[in-house]
């Protein structure tokens, strides 16, 4: 308080700062609430994709067991090693209320039988079904990676925005109001002193 200049111009500047602080507080609260809504929406997607992975993985394991039962473990392993690599995954970024989150782009992982790199003659349908089932699991995992990374980024930025909202609400704005009160009281005090001084001067003049 000792470093504050109790002048009219300082009071005008301070009132503008208070207005800006309230505006920033309101905008940050809107951003925080928007991020929370987006987080809840993405969280639902996360639960859905986790259930999807569990379901698809269970199906893939069953189909793999069937393929091994029909073809034998070593032939199935040989087929697994001969399958061609999946196409590359491209990661773009999209903007959610000022936050960049990943968007995974990829070609369909489920390929046609003749695109997988192993001979189809003499290979049972069970093998093809098992491969397709695991390709579906890979797609699920890519989708899950995108969603869960987005969730982590949203949580981080929600916490950051909450801290800024709280700092404005409980520290910055109260401090600015305290300074405003100090300057106002000091100006009133100076005005009373001036009035008292003028009265004394007038009284001396009449004497």
Can you walk through the features of this model?
- The protein has one domain (8-201): Orthogonal Bundle (Helix Hairpins).
- The mean pLDDT is 86.
- The protein starts with 7 loop residues before the first helix and ends with a helix.
- The chain is mainly α and 207 residues long.
- Strands 1-2 form a two-stranded antiparallel sheet.
- The chain has three helices and two strands; from the N terminus they run ααββα.
- It has helices at residues 8-71, 73-82, 125-206; strands at 90-96, 99-105.
Number of domain modules: 1
Query: Strands of the largest sheet, in order across it?
Result: 1-2
- Gyration radius, to the nearest Å? 34 Å
Structural class: mainly alpha
The share of residues in helices is over 70%
Order of helices and strands: HHEEH
Strand content: 5-15%
Record the SSE blueprint.
Layout: H1 8-71, H2 73-82, E1 90-96, E2 99-105, H3 125-206
Helix pairs in contact: 1-2, 1-3
Brief characterization of the structure:
The chain is built from 3 helices and 2 strands; from the N terminus they run H-H-E-E-H.
Features:
mainly alpha, two-stranded antiparallel ribbon, rod-shaped
């Amino acid at each position: 308080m000792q470093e504050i200049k109790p002048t009219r111009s300082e009071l005008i500047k301070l009132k503008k700062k208070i207005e800006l602080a309230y505006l920033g507080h309101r905008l940050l609260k809107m951003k925080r609430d928007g991020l929370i809504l987006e987080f809840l929406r993405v969280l639902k997607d996360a639960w859905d994709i986790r259930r999807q992975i569990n379901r698809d993985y269970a199906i893939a394991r069953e189909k793999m067991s069937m393929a091994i039962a029909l073809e034998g473990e070593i032939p199935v392993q040989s087929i697994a090693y001969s399958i061609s690599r999946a196409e590359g995954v491209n990661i773009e970024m999209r903007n959610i209320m000022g936050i960049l989150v990943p968007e995974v782009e990829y070609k369909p992982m489920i390929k046609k039988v003749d695109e997988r790199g192993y001979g189809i003659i003499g290979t049972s349908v069970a093998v093809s079904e098992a491969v397709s089932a695991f390709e579906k699991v890979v797609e699920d995992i890519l989708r899950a990676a995108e969603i869960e990374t987005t969730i982590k980024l949203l949580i981080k930025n929600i916490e950051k925005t909450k801290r800024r909202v709280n700092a404005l609400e409980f520290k910055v704005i109260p401090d600015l109001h305290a300074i405003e009160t100090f300057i106002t009281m000091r100006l009133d005090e100076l005005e009373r002193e001036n009035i008292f001084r003028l009265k004394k001067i007038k009284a001396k003049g009449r004497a």
